[in-house]
Hints:
Layout: H1 13-20, E1 26-30, H2 37-45, E2 49-55, H3 58-67, E3 75-79, H4 85-90, E4 99-105, H5 110-114, H6 139-145, H7 148-159, H8 164-177, H9 183-193, H10 209-220, H11 226-236, E5 237-247, H12 250-265, E6 282-284, H13 294-299, E7 307-313
Parallel strand pairs: 1-2, 1-4, 2-3, 4-5
Antiparallel strand pairs: 5-7, 6-7
Helix pairs in contact: 1-2, 7-8, 7-10, 8-9, 11-12
Amino acid sequence: MSEEHGRHVPVLVEECLRFLEPERGGLFVDCTVGLGGHAEAILERGPRARLLAIDRDPEALALAAERLRPFADRVRFLRGNFHRLAELLDEEPVPPTPLAGVLADLGVSSLQLDTPRRGFSFRFDAPLDMRMGDGELTAATIVNQYGETDLERIFRDYGEERQARRVARALVEARREAPISTTGELKAVLERAKGGRRHGREGRVDPATRVFQALRIEVNQELAGLGDFLDQAVRLLEGGGRLVVLSYHSLEDRIVKHRLRHMARGEVDRVTGRPLAETRLIEVLTKKPVRPTDEEVAFNPRSRSARLRAARRL
Ligand SMILES: C[S@@+](CC[C@H](N)C(=O)[O-])C[C@H]1O[C@@H](n2cnc3c(N)ncnc32)[C@H](O)[C@@H]1O
């Protein structure tokens, strides 16, 4: 999404619509409704489409509801974690399946990034929170209570931080003096630990970026349930139904790519080693991930790392 909520533009929106084909009508689920940009486009493009709009963030749901008021008779809002998509739908008064399409625009919204008190961004000094929903784990707990080895693992695995060990050690040393409770304090420790140096490929990346990403992923357990979610989504789709996933870093994209590939190949016969065509669940519609054009990135800088993958249920 782009900078301001008032005029925020959803990422790769035309491409999402091309794959979702809301013109077909039927029930679509936007698993990450955020500020409702994609949802609005789906409802506009598909006059016969109905939408179930999910988000774990109540503030996002309230804003999306306002934006989608013109379509009120075709939208239902549901607060929850899409990692439990099948259960969420089961809990509906009339379980609404099968689905014509499922969209997941992963990660953090501009509302979350731009609201200082939520602690997602090192652009503002704020308490270290970073919760998208109402989980108990905050970034402050991780920073002040996780052991050095766990911190290093998170920074390396979720932030792809090359100096994970050095940064973890610096944090543990710093917190012995006093707890690290704000984004500003954390940023200062990171800058000291990394010596303000930026290495090779990190040239243009702020020294705090990777650690902030890693903490956010751990706080919200963003990767843990992603594979499971893809399985659930595919099984809930009707024949010909579409799944579209937008990811914003290589860790997420890797999970999406592998899981889709696995479901497209189906089971393998143990004796012959050949794929069993009848067990194939989907056809992958994107050989390579779809990326935004230079124009889109110039207009909407937050789209720059987006990768879209889409599949059709067989
Ligand atoms: C990139 S934004 C979506 C923006 C939206 N497509 C739009 O056009 O406004 C991602 C949203 O997904 C939500 N989210 C992230 N992970 C979630 C999860 N596991 N379950 C439910 N919502 C989630 C976040 O709270 C955030 O509002």
